[in-house]
Design brief:
Elements: H1 7-16, E1 27-32, E2 35-41, E3 46-51, H2 58-73, E4 77-82, H3 83-88
Length: 93
């Protein structure tokens, strides 16, 4: 893993792991060079990213936009959720 998982990442992994979510297989901390994405589902070509407060800065937004454009150019769909939404409103995630 690239870092210690956040509480939001732990909760999201509990939701996604072991094919509990729509019977799909997700991987966490999956390498898509040059990035490591939070969660990846090969069957759907889907990347799920969880964002904390550092992503709500001008630099964070610019980095995330570049990352999303790169991943979408590979044919992947990128979905982003705020950590707070995962932790406090997981029913909408």
């Amino acid at each position: 893993m690239r870092h210690d998982a956040t509480d939001a990442e732990h909760l999201m992994w509990q939701i996604l792991r072991a094919q509990r979510f729509m019977n799909l297989k997700f991987r966490r901390q999956h390498v898509i060079e040059p990035y490591i994405v939070d969660f990846y589902c090969h069957e759907l070509s889907l990347v799920v990213e969880l964002d904390g407060g550092q992503h709500n800065t001008d630099v964070g937004v610019a980095c995330d936009n570049g990352r999303t454009q790169f991943l979408e150019a590979l044919g992947l769909k990128v979905i982003r959720y705020w950590n707070d939404d995962v932790l406090n409103r997981s029913e909408v995630v």
